[in-house]
């Protein structure tokens, strides 16, 4: 990897290698918008990189994102938001922090301090092998439930579903496909296997506020929880419109027959 790359490009290249997928640099989503400018137009805000296959966004935030820096902030110039660039940067970072997870994407923020940066926040001493290990750890999902959720979301996309922000903030995953809506609860590996599954079923029952026949519910679990999930008989799951999905360690998704 060339040392003349910008720090952000260097870090994002490491992300590509760690994920096994090339991210979409400076990607813009239709729903991530800046403040209205002249004529009321709202420009789409870029993210540093988006990996659709991993449903992941990474932001590399250099020092100017966390501390005042007059060279970048230009305090004597006001932006369309009526504040200087430093304040607007903070507003837009907060908007990314809120909107990206709300739209079903995982957001990972990497900062110079996470790597071997100097006092100016520059990655002047790049050790590719060491930096790659750091990035892999930063991108690692925090729990098995995160893994199951991410893999199931990717499967939904491949099946023509569109993940949406859940109507209930406590819902793990919600998606639409035409007139259909799917509301899902996800459980990962857990010491309390039976208890975790029972909680999942209870959470789904509380989500059953719609009388629409096109709304279905899903309990999504790894193989180790299937036996416990099947203790609720198939004919009961059919009556409740609850589908059971198994997500294997390799990401393969299987709908378990009712």
Give the rounded overall mean pLDDT: 86
- Coarse morphology: globular
Radius of gyration: 22 Å
| Class computed from helices, strands and strand pairing | alpha/beta
Strand content: 15-25%
What's the architecture of the largest domain, going by CATH? 3-Layer(aba) Sandwich
Provide the helix percentage. Answer: 25-40%
Reported by name, the CATH topology of the largest domain is Endonuclease, Chain A
Give the CATH class of the largest domain.
Alpha Beta
Order of helices and strands: HEEEHHEHHEEEHEHHEE
Main sheet record? 6 strands, mixed
Q: Domains counted in the coordinates: how many? A: 2
How would you briefly describe this protein structure?
This protein has helices at about 5-20, 70-75, 85-100, 130-140, 145-160, 195-205, 225-230, 235-240; strands at about 25-35, 45-50, 55-60, 105-110, 160-165, 175, 180-185, 215-220, 240-245, 255. The chain is of the alpha/beta class and about 260 residues long. The longest helix has 18 residues, at about 85-100.
Write up what this structure looks like:
The longest helix is centred in the middle third of the chain and has 18 residues, at 85-102. By secondary structure, this protein is an alpha/beta fold. Helices cover 34% and strands 23% of the residues. The termini are far apart. Helix 1 (7-19) crosses helix 4 (128-139). Strand 7 (180-186), helix 6 and strand 8 form a beta-alpha-beta unit. The chain is built from 8 helices and 10 strands. The protein folds into 2 domains: 7-139, Endonuclease, Chain A (3-Layer(aba) Sandwich), CATH 3.40.960; 144-256, Trna Endonuclease, Chain: A, domain 1, CATH 3.40.1350.10.
């Amino acid at each position: 990897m060339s040392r003349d790359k910008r720090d952000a490009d260097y870090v994002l290249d490491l992300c590509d290698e760690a994920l096994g997928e090339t991210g979409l640099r400076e990607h813009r989503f239709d729903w991530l918008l800046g403040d209205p400018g002249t004529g009321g137009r709202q420009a789409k805000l870029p993210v540093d990189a988006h990996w659709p296959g991993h449903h992941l966004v990474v932001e590399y935030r250099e020092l100017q994102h966390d501390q005042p820096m007059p060279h970048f902030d230009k305090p004597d110039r006001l932006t369309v938001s009526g504040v200087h660039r430093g304040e607007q940067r903070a507003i837009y970072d907060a908007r990314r922090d809120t909107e990206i997870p709300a739209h079903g994407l995982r957001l990972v923020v990497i900062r110079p301090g996470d790597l071997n940066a100097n006092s100016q926040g520059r990655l002047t001493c790049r050790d590719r092998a060491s930096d790659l290990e750091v990035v892999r750890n930063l991108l690692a999902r925090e729990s098995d439930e995160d893994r199951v959720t991410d893999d199931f979301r990717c499967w939904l996309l491949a099946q023509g579903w569109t993940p949406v922000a859940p109507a209930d903030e406590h819902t793990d995953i919600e998606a639409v496909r035409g007139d259909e809506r799917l509301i899902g609860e996800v459980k990962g590996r857990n010491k309390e296997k039976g208890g975790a599954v029972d909680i999942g079923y209870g959470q789904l029952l509380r989500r059953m506020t719609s009388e629409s026949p096109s709304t279905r519910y899903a309990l999504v679990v790894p193989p180790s929880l299937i036996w416990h999930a099947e203790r609720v008989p198939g004919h009961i799951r059919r009556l409740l419109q609850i589908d059971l999905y198994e997500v294997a360690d390799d990401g393969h998704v299987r709908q378990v027959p009712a």
